[in-house]
Every structure is written in C-alpha cells, then in structure tokens.
Amino acid sequence: MLPLKSSPGPRYRDSTERLTPGALLVTDGKAVEGILTASRQKKSYNWQAMVDQATACHTGAAITKTECSQGVQEAFEKSCQLIGHPPLAPLHDNKSLYDHKALKIVIEATTVMIPATPARPENKAVLEGEFGKFEQTVGAIHLDDSSMETMRQSAVSEVIRAYTAALNHAGRAEFEGRSRLQVLREACPNPEKDRKFIEQLK
C-alpha cells in the first residue's frame, strides 16, 4: 500500500491566527437565485451561512426572504446545536442588522459578537470561498412550477443535483487533490485497451 501524499493545510488569506475548531464562526448572507421554469419567474432568497473559521465546516444555515437578524439568530442556534456549545465569537460584517437589539440579547448571552475589520474582506475569506464554490458547483436553482407535483419532483431533483455536484467538485486524496470531475475530463482513454476489457467483461 502506498502512503498518501501529505496535503497542505487550509489557506487563510492574510491571516496568521488559526483558532481552535469551534472557537470562531464566520457568518454572512448570500442571495440564492431560484428560477420557476413554467412561469419564467426569478425568485431570490437569502442564505444566511455560518461557517467554522478553522475548518470551513458549515455549522448552521437559515433561508429567509432577505438578509435579516432572524436568519442570523437561526443560523447561530443551529451552529450551537451542531457543535454542542456556543462559539467564543461569531464574526460578521458591518451591516446594521447585526446591531438589532433582540439578536444581541440572544447571542451575547453566551458569546461576543465581533464585526469584521472595515475594508478587510479577508476577515471573512473562509466564507466567501465557500460561497464561490456554491456558485461554481450549484448555481441557480430551477423549479418546475407547472403543477404542485412537478414542483415537488424538481425540488428533489435539485437537491440531488447539488449533492452530486458537491461530490464531483471536491478534491480527493486518491487523486492528489484533484476532483473526480477533473480526473474524468482530463482523462485520455485508450479505446482499444478499454474495448478489449469491456468485451471480456461482457
């Protein structure tokens, strides 16, 4: 058995601190576009994500009509449930919704809210990177709203598409960090060799 090549640790853009997993969470909202294929309408919903700074593990998420304090609170509470304890701090951007009194009462009962440094987007680089991956692998959500049954079926179809896209784009140790999709697209098959094997298999 060959030993796996050691892979580099996660990169933190312009950051020198690597905190203990679960200590610092990063949160932000991302507009996710949905397209209703029958009525040709476009709908946009806010995905309030909360991600662990050290591992980029998604710890909580809320879907709301717009980016709002209720979504932040829901994502925070889900994160606490997943981790098993409150983080030392959630890091957020400087939007006014994070100053909402009811939100501060809930979150600051157990932890401290920290705004990102102004004009330093690298504070939230771990989450911005995750948003970028989502756009590359999933993109817009397409739902068939011609009937309730087609809506349900297309919703399940989009869940499966998102799941398989995430698998296909993830780097794999056995492929030296390349994804399954990269290996498949870069392959230069030998038709004669493969045809002989397939004929034997048949």
Mean pLDDT: 86
What's the helix count? 6
Q: Helical residue percent?
A: 25-40%
SS-based class: alpha/beta
Hey, roughly how much beta strand do the residues contain?
Answer: 15-25%
Order of helices and strands: EEEHEHEHEHHH
What Rg is obtained from the alpha carbons, in whole angstroms?
21 Å
Low-pLDDT stretches? 12-16
Shape: globular
> What is the CA-CA span between the terminal residues?
30 Å
Number of strands: 6
Largest pleated sheet: 6 strands, mixed
Compact description:
With 202 residues, this protein is of the alpha/beta class. Helix content is 37%, strand content 20%.
Topology, element by element:
Elements: E1 24-36, E2 41-52, E3 58-64, H1 69-83, E4 89-92, H2 101-107, E5 114-115, H3 125-137, E6 141-143, H4 148-169, H5 180-186, H6 191-201
Parallel strand pairs: 1-4, 1-6, 4-5
Antiparallel strand pairs: 1-2, 2-3
Helix pairs in contact: 1-2
Q: What does it look like?
A:
With 202 residues, the protein is α/β, with parallel strands linked by helices. Helix content is 37%, strand content 20%. It is built from 6 helices and 6 strands, in the order E-E-E-H-E-H-E-H-E-H-H-H. It has helices at 69-83, 101-107, 125-137, 148-169, 180-186, 191-201; strands spanning 24-36, 41-52, 58-64, 89-92, 114-115, 141-143. Strands 1, 2, 3, 4, 5 and 6 form a 6-stranded mixed β-sheet that branches. Strand 1 (24-36) and strand 2 (41-52) form a beta hairpin. Helix 1 (69-83) runs parallel beside helix 2 (101-107). The longest helix is centred in the C-terminal third of the chain and has 22 residues, at 148-169. The chain is globular, with a radius of gyration of 21 Å. The two termini are 30 Å apart. Mean pLDDT is 86; it is low at 12-16.
